[in-house]
């Protein structure tokens, strides 16, 4: 299922959300008819790669896609731009790509795999985002090792602030 839609980039002028692309409830209903999750794959202006994103409720019956600074920069988007979106449900296991470095570690370390998969899906995605963000494989591996060792040291009781401090020390 692929839905094409054009939306205008707007600034919500909110402390929580910045620039967003509004998505009407009827389009979201089509997506939710195919899945129970608000995670989507989205292509901006026909350009690859597909991005793993989430449909966020606006509190008024509609939804939006948050378009952070990194996305705006990579697609050269500015407030008021009309953006063509190709949207489909994200049926991947994590709602984002699993960095190869983390996949290998989880495959080799049963304890880390247990603690990682005991976390909520949102926490799993947050950790995968932290690991997948660096450009080099060596840095991704260092982050993955640090995170898996941290999870084992705290028996899976994740505290992001404490984890970030532990990563700085390693």
Helical coverage, percent range: 40-55%
Terminal CA distance: 44 Å
Number of strands: 7
Strand content: 15-25%
| Helix/strand class | alpha+beta
Q: Sketch the major β-sheet.
A: 7 strands, antiparallel
The geometry reads as elongated
Unreliable residue runs: none
Rounded to the nearest angstrom, the radius of gyration is 18 Å
Order of secondary-structure elements: EEEHEEEHEHHHHH
Q: Average the pLDDT over all residues and give the rounded result.
A: 91
Number of helices: 7
For the largest sheet, list the strands in their spatial order. 1-7-4-5-6-3-2
What are the salient characteristics of this protein?
single chain; 170 residues; alpha+beta; seven-stranded antiparallel sheet; 7 helices; 44% helix
Describe this structure in words.
The chain has seven helices and seven strands. With 170 residues, it is of the alpha+beta class. β2 (10-11) and β3 form a beta hairpin. The radius of gyration is 18 Å and the shape is elongated. It starts with a strand and ends with a helix.
């Amino acid at each position: 299922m692929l839905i094409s839609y054009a939306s205008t980039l707007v600034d919500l002028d909110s402390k929580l959300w910045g620039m967003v692309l509004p998505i009407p409830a009827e389009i979201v209903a089509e997506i939710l008819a195919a899945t129970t999750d608000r995670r989507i794959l989205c292509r901006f202006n026909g350009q690859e790669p597909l991005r793993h994103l989430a449909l966020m409720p606006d509190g008024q019956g509609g939804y939006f896609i948050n378009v952070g600074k990194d996305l705006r920069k990579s697609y050269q988007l500015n407030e008021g731009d009309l953006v063509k979106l190709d949207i489909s449900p994200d049926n991947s296991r994590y709602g984002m790509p699993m960095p190869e470095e983390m996949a290998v570690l989880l495959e080799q370390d049963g304890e880390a795999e247990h603690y990682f998969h005991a976390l909520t899906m949102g926490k799993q995605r947050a950790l995968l985002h932290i690991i997948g963000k660096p450009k080099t494989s060596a840095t991704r591996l260092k982050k993955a090792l640090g995170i898996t060792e941290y999870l084992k040291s705290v028996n899976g009781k994740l505290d992001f602030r404490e984890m970030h401090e532990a990563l700085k020390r390693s």
